Amino acid sequence: MVKERIAFPSFSQEPIRLIDPEGCWVAPFSHGLSAQELRHFYRDMLAARLLDEKLVVLVRTGRTSFIAPHAGHEAAQVGIAHALRKGHDWLFPYYRDLGLVLAMGVPPVEIFGQTLGNAADPAKGRQMPSHPGSRPLNIFTVCSAIASHIPPATGAAISMKLRRTHQVAVCTFGDGATSEGDWHAGVNFAAVQRAPVVFVCENNRYAISVNISKQTASENIAVKAKAYGIPGYYVDGLDVLASYFVVQYVVERARAGEGPSLVELAVHRFGPHSSADDDTRYKSREELSAERQQDPILRYQRFLEREGLWDAQWANELRLEIAKELETALQEAQKAGEPDPLQMFDDVYAARPWHLEEQRRQVAEELEA
Amino acid sequence: MPIVTLVQAINMALDEELRRDERVMILGEDVGQRGGVFLATEGLQQKYGPDRVMDTPLSEAAILGAAVGLAAHGMRPVAEIQFADYVFPGIDQLFSQAAKLRYRSGGQFTAPMVVRMPSGGGVKGGHHHSQSPEAHFAHTPGLKVVVVSTPYDAKGLLKSAIRDDDPVVFMEPKRLYRAVKEEVPSDDYLIPIGKAALRREGRDITLVSYGGPMVETLKAAEEMAVAGVEAEVIDLRTVMPWDKETVLNSVAKTGRLLVVSEAPRTASVASEVAATVSEELFDQLLAPPLRVTGFDTPYPLAQDKLYMPTVTRILNAAKRLLDY
């Protein structure tokens, strides 16, 4: 097992890094991954980036109202996705996780359906874009309220422990979420119960416009774990294999009954907070340009080149293949059309009580008139 | 058949449901070893163990949020909030997560959980041990809200709430915990959520109430009977969804409606009942519907008795309706 082979230090001063910016493998162990597995990471990161670019186009051409770009988070998100047992473990994501849910296997047509808020959305167009969820994949539908999914992740993990399902709950969030009371409540309770849950912070150092220096006086996010009596891991989230190996290590640790962990994946946010945000008001173009120099996909490309697994022709073909897949999915989603307006009254309760029947009847009559 | 108090009936329901379904569990502050500050969970941890009757950190957000995750993952959690007044630190979990999970996921995920909480005044608790916040919950689509007033109902409704597929806020008027006693069968029975109880039949006036003030409402009806006025008394039991049919049938017969509640008046459950009756039975009413409620102040300590609906206040309002 990986766990026997690789143990990572908690509370390290420097971020845990396995691939350096030049693409060199710098870990004291061999990764043991096949060429196919290594290329799979690249494919998922590239797909995440292309999805992000496509969503930006959808917003700019007025075909959707909102997106929360995830460019810069790809290594972290793909690392997390590969560390879970898909369809077995549970994921509690937040709104900047479309690259993560894509890598988890959510069909692109569902992602576009959710983005368009139409009938291709398994959640029936109920929420803003960037709020995915999937029952078959155990992906707990995103809730806008920041950090409100932390205590539910803890609860699900307690259920996993009590019923010995050998599952793990993985819960992701941004740096701003760690200031919410519900974050504290959820992490604390999980630690007391030694519940099989892994808390992963995708720390891009900006909560909309508020810099991490105004968010917390802690030296980093990972050290917060100390106060809860659980290990915290400070990881270079621009390094897909570091993200993968550390998250996998703590996921399997949780599965083995050793309790929760906190992982901080240090990333950059290349875009604004959302399509409704103007990041030039608070982030200098020099800072952004320096961040873009550290593109996680480029770093991994250099690594693959050194492994003899990357060449321009292969990458171009892959890019075209993914772009075509996404375009096909988008077209399919666009064909789905508007959700039935009377679905507005469904899923409030398991069955419609009299007052919702009355209100539904009123709207039905208005629509017929 | 044992004669039990309301809090004992709650304990019976929890005990029976824990025994019946291994997915059922209890979580909250002091619910384990202590058996709850009102002893609603007395003896249950000893019987079912610390995993199924779980003492939690002092955090309503943790209790309610964990209940959401437990329920979504397949358990049937019964969360105890020590006093209704302390639900507010956990309200985002109740309003943003529990109430909307089914809706926001398009029915993919659900939160079948019960949130029990002692509510209401009359125990010299000041404003943070006396509130009746049911209107907040009733105003949040996705939640069902039950307020009990008798031991028999408490047991049957709590069992229904635990088996319900939606989140149910279950309010227990603390001043009735040991003040009312009646025979409660030890076998399994359910009382449906959303059905009111006709406590007394009459043709002259309809009194609608629920929870704590049911006591004063029934006393007022008895006094009216002595004076020759036959009041029909309805105990709503569920305030969301409330039993409109039973209320309209009664008011169609009597032509007069008085709603009694100890919650603040403005934007209250009492207002909702009065407004609906006005809309639907306007031309059959003999007088405008009236409300006897708590006042729009924080719950006061020194003026406790003045704040609560009294028999006299109910009788005076009834007289206004009858003399109209």
Short description:
Chain A is of the alpha/beta class and 369 residues long.
CATH domain class name of the largest domain in chain B: Alpha Beta
Helix/strand/pairing category of chain A:
alpha/beta
- State the strand order across the main sheet of chain A: 1-2-3-7-6
User: What's the order of the H and E elements of chain B?
Assistant: EHEHEHEHHEHEHEEEEHEEHEHEHH
CATH topology name of the largest domain in chain A: Rossmann fold
CATH-level-2 architecture of the largest domain in chain A: 3-Layer(aba) Sandwich
Stretches with pLDDT under 50, minimum 5 residues of chain B: none
Instruction: State which percent range the strand residues of chain A make up.
Output: 5-15%
Kindly report the name of the CATH homologous superfamily of the largest domain in chain A: Thiamin diphosphate (ThDP)-binding fold, Pyr/PP domains
Give the name of the CATH architecture of the largest domain in chain B: 3-Layer(aba) Sandwich
Report the order of strands and helices of chain A.
Answer: HHHEHHHEHEEEHHEHEHHHH
At the third CATH level, what is the topology name of the largest domain in chain B?
Rossmann fold
Give the tally of β-strands of chain B.
Answer: 14
